[in-house]
Amino acid sequence: MAYDITLIPGDGIGPEVISATVDIIEAVGVDINWDKVEAGANTIETEGTPLPDYVINSIKKNKIALKGPLTTPIGQGFRSVNVSLRKKLDLFANIRPVKSFNGIPSLHKDVDLIIVRENTEDLYAGVERMIDENRAESIKIITKKASERICRYAFQMARDLNRKKVTLVHKANIMKLSDGLFLESGRKIAKDYPDIEFEEVIVDAMSMKLVQFPQDYDVIVAPNLYGDILSDLAAGLIGGLGLAPSANIGEEIALFEPVHGSALDISNKNIANPISAILSGVLMLKHIGQFDAAVKIERALSVVLKDEANRTMDLGGKQGTKEFAEKVIEKVS
Ligand code: NAI
């Protein structure tokens, strides 16, 4: 049976890393009809919007999407398409596994944690206004419903994956109401999971502890903004953004994308590391039940990465994006 899956190549390094991922998934033999659609700055000229309706309709129809990064203009211009997609499709859970690769130069070894980030609200909703020309205001909305939903997701995932501990990150000592509500929600849900250890850590302390002792953490649940920042930090512990995949999960729809952005500084040079995108593809394959294919790709990546000469520039090697994908394809086909 062929799967129908929406494919958004993205911009910057997006098309390069997504093309590497699609080639590898095809080589491993999973039959997919890719419904390729464009979004972002590319479609502003042609469609007059960075998020045309046909993108949303395709994802709603197929229920699964693989996406490359999309550039968001800083300080002006259109709002983030990435954030709009998560909100419009109610992809409430952003799952970011961070796992050490054997042999890759990194600050730490034996890191194996999963960040579960609330994906629909917090300061990230971008509800902002100028009060007057000298004062700006951003509104942070945290709801009980979204907080309980993401905390339950984190605990249930911990139980399903046989993980031992959930660490909730907050700043409720200062934001007593908004972060306080998130924390209260976590405490409430924790009572339904007595088999999972529950721990609360303030976000500044968490940043330090993650840098010093990342092996102490298992599943981390956080509101949107802290989750965003901590997951880039965690990626840095194991070798960088080029290695970190993510899944955006809703009740019915799931969208998979690398954690990194469009990296315009290295785009169109065939030097981007495609592993983050490939591992996002691996998460997608597991989600649709293609476990053998997923494990085959994971093993191939490990084998290819053992040889320093096979690595991309960010990992100290000289291999191009395409050539790296070809090495992985040799191992999976
Ligand atoms: P970025 O992740 O694009 O780049 C940060 C640094 O990491 C750069 O030096 C870049 O060269 C490097 N890097 C990133 N991915 C890499 C890879 N696969 N291989 C090798 N090096 C890699 O973050 P930045 O510069 O803050 O954002 C650029 C644009 O991407 C912005 O417009 C931002 O809004 C957007 N973005 C989009 C995301 C998405 O589509 N989900 C996520 C994050 C950022």
From TrEMBL:
<dbReference type="GO" id="GO:0046553">
    <property type="term" value="F:D-malate dehydrogenase (decarboxylating) (NAD+) activity"/>
</dbReference>
<protein>
    <submittedName>
        <fullName>3-isopropylmalate/3-methylmalate dehydrogenase</fullName>
        <ecNumber>1.1.1.83</ecNumber>
        <ecNumber>1.1.1.85</ecNumber>
    </submittedName>
</protein>
<keyword id="KW-0560">Oxidoreductase</keyword>
<dbReference type="GO" id="GO:0003862">
    <property type="term" value="F:3-isopropylmalate dehydrogenase activity"/>
</dbReference>
<dbReference type="Pfam" id="PF00180">
    <property type="entry name" value="Iso_dh"/>
</dbReference>
<dbReference type="GO" id="GO:0051287">
    <property type="term" value="F:NAD binding"/>
</dbReference>
<dbReference type="GO" id="GO:0006099">
    <property type="term" value="P:tricarboxylic acid cycle"/>
</dbReference>
<comment type="similarity">
    <text>Belongs to the isocitrate and isopropylmalate dehydrogenases family.</text>
</comment>
<dbReference type="InterPro" id="IPR024084">
    <property type="entry name" value="IsoPropMal-DH-like_dom"/>
</dbReference>
<dbReference type="GO" id="GO:0006102">
    <property type="term" value="P:isocitrate metabolic process"/>
</dbReference>
<dbReference type="GO" id="GO:0000287">
    <property type="term" value="F:magnesium ion binding"/>
</dbReference>
<feature type="domain" description="Isopropylmalate dehydrogenase-like">
    <location>
        <begin position="4"/>
        <end position="328"/>
    </location>
</feature>
<dbReference type="InterPro" id="IPR019818">
    <property type="entry name" value="IsoCit/isopropylmalate_DH_CS"/>
</dbReference>
<dbReference type="GO" id="GO:0004449">
    <property type="term" value="F:isocitrate dehydrogenase (NAD+) activity"/>
</dbReference>
